[in-house]
Design brief:
The complex is a heterodimer of chains A (about 375) and B (about 650). Chain A contains 2 helices and 27 strands. With about 375 residues, chain A is mainly beta. In chain A, the strands form 7 sheets. In chain A, strands 3-2-1-27 form a 4-stranded antiparallel beta sheet. The longest helix of chain A is centred in the N-terminal third of the chain and has 17 residues. In chain B, a hairpin with a 3-residue loop joins strand 11 and strand 12. The chains are: A mainly beta (about 375), B mainly beta (about 650).
Chain lengths: ~375, ~650
């Protein structure tokens, strides 16, 4: 005991700890863990579909999953792998046009524009106010809806916000009809459902001016256009169940609500979609519901019952009309995506996704001439 | 206690009571050993009645007067602290449990918010307490229910020999961080007054590399100011009656920095906290009877503001306790107690005022079977808002096989429950009044040993504990089937945590130097035992943000009033999702302290330099929340002390 002085002991331990410490100089950052490398340059991202994983709000863990149609293999975290940085916080939606992908990252206030050959960033567009969705007016212009303040006008050639259209309220879904963009407007974000004034805004795409509005039921979250050029608007009734949810049909020429279907039950409907032929609409209400646009009433039974799933996202393939849905499980682990037959609701495929798969984006798009 | 007769037992008890340790097992003092050159207090008490307790005393706290409880626990305990950054939200994960399974107490009074069920450790400045007592697992049942992980008690106690002790410290640290603390203790053998004040501000605008933007940035919206004031009064009448009154006001206003991926110059998010805590106690000490009556009132206010939320929450907690220790019924000690508490909350998140009434009856029995074997039993029954809660018992055994070797083996079995927080029950739209209490079952076994060599210059203690904890009906918030926007709390999860805690402390006093070496290691495998959703893949996987391995080590060398400490911390990998694919890599952090003190009669002046994150590790503890690189602090502290007996 006497030979070993405290000083020498301290020295030995100090050196030991120094050695241990000096080993780990790599920055400590979230690791995506073992994932397959993306398909890369050899095969581009033009023959499959994307699953946009929102990620948890304020966790910064949004991601994009790509599924190749040929192989059916899901590739996780393709944005991070291609660009060596995270996608951001809450990826809300994605659209493609002219071999470019536009990913709307809500809480990061950004739209990432990527090249679909390698998924590398062409430009990160900043300056949004909690962006939700992007809709193309033509090959040169797009609108982006926001939770706050305004609607952003994006020039697709320079990839910049060229104009903002002031609206104090939360704008969400968009559908173009003739020269007009119809936008759902939910009301002031910070207010409770009881105070929000919900409506459709009609925006003239030539002048970027809001020319008219149509009052709707509470919280219009989705809008589609059918083959007879009627608009369908899904009003959830409020996230807090403030009022009964309603599906309304709007005549875009007369700018009037023609029909309203009230939903039974307490489950809140969401994710309004329409098939490529424009004759059948789909939505989630616990299960997946299918309804011909000519129906006199809402379907009483789902086409696909939830069967233990908590369906979160829903999309219809723009060409073959099959049904894509996602399950975010308990939101604290990676989710699952499914493909179902639209004729009988039978499960065709299952894929693993990233965290909270919220929306789908298909490489192949079909612009129905009738709408434009 | 190798006591021989009632006289010793009584005087030890008196000492305990007066030093304020009495509400615990009442056995601490015998673990205090005087060294010729240094006083050593065993951190791992050998007499623990089968229930593990650890304490962190003022020698650890005084050099860290500018810090808060989260820093202390992260560096000196096996509790994992989930920290969102310097002076930002910090919550404990104790033995793999959630933040609301650790109860933080101030002199035995719960500080956890009845709304959240937890408390932010960054809001508890070290300058406002003198010691920390950590009660592991079932040991916390002697205080309260629901502390599945354990109880952390912040203590302030009088020193009856004090005449005057005044200290003033000023810390200046990186990122415009200024902390001032004042402590004034004055009194005599029968009366003591403590006044403490702390004031701190920081810009906290440290530089960090942001992967998202691809550049080095300065943290925005991270500034804070915090101040606190407390006054304690202690009075003693004929060594029989002890009366104390304490109050503590704490104010903080802090900005909350954005996530690395969400930085906007106009980021708006901040929070104001104000709390006023008061506690009055009366203690009666007799040969075989000890009575303690306490009453406390806490008022806590929180105001949170961001782009879309402007919410105020205010609660009051009124707690009344009676504790009796009846000693010497042959070899039996009986400690019954009664708690009565009333909480009321006014919150923007609730429809109207919410209240909670708790009546708790409690009994602890300690039976010395032989001098070597002590059995103890604890039982607690509670009625919450008129509903009888699950009965929660615990039994412990302690065995000291040798009379000359300070070795103790202990084990315990327990059941515990946690009542849902008021947010769980009443949060507008989302709360679930139908919730049941969470239940836990625990088993634990440990060994503690300490040794002082013949020359009393070398002290060594070691501790090894293994535990198993099963939590059933655990409350988890998850999206309802009605809507993904509506998250409701339900009793749907089950978690098992098993682990090993090991610690070694040693003190050497040779060559006119003192050397302390401390190492604690924690292994914690905490797993999901039930799938909330049948399609999940979390079964058997490690809980998110819960490291399996953590290790703390420290060296402190002192010679000629010069001291040097090196603190080392290893935090293992933490998973970011229940399926355990994405993770935060493990990391090592090192801090050093260098100080020199000068003594002139009763006056002491010390100067200290600290370097945190010595190797300038670029790290994140929580994903996309930056942490500062190497940073510095300098503290000057002056104190004046005079004992009344002098």
């Amino acid at each position: 005991m006497n030979r070993i002085t405290p000083l020498s002991q301290a020295l030995v331990l100090g050196v030991l700890i120094f050695v241990i410490s000096s080993c780990s100089k790599d920055p400590i950052r979230p690791s995506i863990g073992p994932v397959d490398p993306p398909p890369g340059d050899s095969s581009s991202y033009t023959t499959g579909f994307f699953i946009v994983n929102e990620g948890n709000f304020n966790w910064g863990n949004a991601s994009v999953t790509y599924v190749d149609n040929e192989t059916g293999t899901p590739y996780q975290h393709i944005f991070q792998q291609a660009n060596n940085r995270p996608l951001g916080d809450v990826a809300q939606s994605m659209k493609v046009m002219n071999n470019r992908g536009y990913i709307v990252v809500n809480a990061s206030n950004r739209v990432e524009v990527v090249d679909l050959t390698d998924f590398k960033i062409i430009k990160s567009i900043d300056g949004f106010n909690s962006p939700r969705y992007i809709e193309f007016v033509d090959s040169t212009k797009a609108y982006v809806t926001n939770l706050y303040k305004d609607i952003s006008v994006v020039d697709l050639r320079t990839l910049t916000i060229t104009k903002t259209i002031k609206t104090p309220e939360w704008t969400e879904g968009m559908v173009k009809y003739n020269q007009y963009m119809f936008l759902t407007c939910i009301g002031t974000f910070s207010e409770p459902s009881s105070k929000r004034k919900a409506k459709l805004l009609i925006l003239d795409t030539e002048t970027d001016v809001i020319v008219d509005s149509i009052q709707t039921a509470t919280e219009p979250v989705g809008i589609v256009i059918d083959k007879k050029l009627k608009l369908w608007v899904l009003c959830s009734g409020g996230w807090d169940g403030f009022s009964a949810p309603v599906l309304i049909r709007v005549n875009p020429d007369l700018r009037q609500v023609e029909k309203a279907f009230s939903f039974p039950g307490t489950d809140i409907p969401s994710r309004l979609n329409i098939n490529p032929t424009g004759d059948t609409i789909y939505y989630l209400q616990n299960g997946i519901f299918q309804m011909p646009v000519t129906a006199a009433q809402l379907p009483s039974q789902p086409l696909i019952s939830s069967g233990g799933h908590l369906f979160y996202g829903l999309a219809i393939h723009p060409i073959d009309g099959t049904i894509y849905a996602s399950d975010a499980i308990d939101y604290v682990q990676d989710g699952i995506a499914f493909q179902f037959s639209s004729s009988n609701g039978i499960l065709i495929h299952t894929w693993e996704t990233g965290r909270i798969p919220g929306s789908f984006c298909f490489s192949e798009t079909r612009n129905r001439k009738s709408i434009n | 206690m190798t006591g021989n007769g009632k006289h010793l037992r009584r005087s030890v008890l008196l000492l305990l009571v007066i030093s304020g340790y009495a509400t615990a097992s009442g056995q601490y003092v015998s673990d205090t050993l005087k060294l010729r050159e240094v006083e050593v207090k065993a951190s791992f008490p050998v007499n623990n009645m089968g229930f593990k307790r650890v304490r962190l005393d003022s020698t650890i706290l005084i050099p860290r007067l500018d810090a808060n409880l989260s820093t202390i626990l992260a560096q000196y305990s096996t509790i994992f602290i989930k920290s969102y950054g310097n002076n930002n939200l910090a919550t404990p994960s104790f033995r793999g449990t959630s933040a609301h399974h650790t109860i933080i107490e101030w002199n035995g009074i719960t500080l956890n918010s009845p709304m959240l069920g937890q408390i932010d450790l960054s809001q508890l400045p070290v300058a406002q307490f003198q010691g920390v007592e950590i009660l592991y697992g079932a040991s916390g049942l002697s205080r309260t229910s629901g502390a599945f992980g354990g109880v952390i008690n912040l203590k302030t106690n009088p020193d009856w020999n004090n005449f005057l002790h005044v200290s003033l410290s000023q810390t200046i640290a990186s990122f415009n961080n200024y902390t001032t603390t004042l402590n004034a203790e004055v009194g005599n053998k029968n009366f003591q007054s403590h006044t403490r004040a702390n004031f701190g501000t920081a810009k906290n605008n440290f530089p960090f590399y942001n992967d998202y933007s691809g550049q080095t940035e300065k943290l925005i919206n991270g500034s804070y100011s915090q101040y606190g004031f407390s006054q304690d009064i202690f009075a003693k009448i004929k060594d029989r009656h002890l009366i104390s009154a304490r109050f503590w006001y704490n104010y903080s206003n802090r900005e909350i920095p954005p996530l690395n991926t969400n930085i906007r110059p106009d980021h708006l998010e901040y929070q104001t906290n104000k709390s006023l805590r008061s506690l009055a106690e009366y203690t009666y000490i007799h040969r075989s009877l000890f009575v303690k009556i306490s009453s406390s009132l806490i008022n806590d206010y929180l105001h949170y503001i961001n782009d879309s939320i402007n919410a105020e929450h205010q609660y009051y907690s009124f707690t009344n306790r009676i504790r009796l220790d009846i000693i010497g019924i042959k070899r039996l000690t009986v400690k019954p107690g009664l708690d009565l508490s009333h909480d009321w909350v006014n919150s923007d998140a609730y429809n109207n005022q919410k209240q909670r009434n708790v009546l708790a009856g409690f009994i602890e029995l300690i039976y010395k079977v032989t001098p070597a074997v002590t059995l103890s039993g604890l039982a607690r029954a509670e009625v919450v808002d008129g509903k009888l809660m699950p009965f929660i018992p615990a039994i412990g055994v302690e065995y000291k096989p040798f009379s000359k070797i300070n070795l103790s083996l202990s084990a315990n079995l327990s059941r515990n429950y946690r009542y849902p927080s008021l947010n769980d029950l009443y949060w507008e739209t989302w709360g679930n009044p139908e919730l049941l209490p969470e239940l836990s079952y625990g088993a634990e076994g440990g060994i503690t040993w300490n040794w002082l060599n013949n020359s009393k210059r070398f002290f060594l203690e070691a501790e090894l504990t293994g535990y198993y904890l099963l939590i059933q009906d655990m409350i988890v918030w998850s999206p309802s089937s009605a809507s993904s926007a509506i998250w409701i709390p339900e009793n749907i999860s089950e978690v098992a945590s098993r682990g090993i805690e090991a610690g070694i402390n040693s003190t050497f006093a040779y060559w006119k130097s003192n050397l302390d070496l401390n190492v604690t290691y924690n292994f914690c495998k905490a797993t999901y035992q039930k799938e909330i959703n049948p399609n999940g893949s979390s079964f058997g996987k490690q809980l998110i943000y819960t490291p399996v391995h953590t290790l703390n080590a420290s060296i402190r060398l002192e010679r000629n009033r010069f001291y040097f400490s090196y603190l080392f911390n290893f935090t293992g990998r933490r998973y970011l999702g229940k399926e355990n694919t994405e993770y935060m890599p493990g990391y090592n952090l090192s801090n050093i302290f260098l100080g020199k003190s000068f003594q002139l009669k009763d006056f002491n002046l010390s100067l200290q330099i600290e370097i945190n994150n010595l190797f300038d590790l670029d790290y994140q503890s929580i994903a996309y929340r930056p942490m500062p690189g190497r940073n510095f602090g300098i503290t000057i502290r002056g104190s004046f002390s005079r004992k009344s007996s002098q």
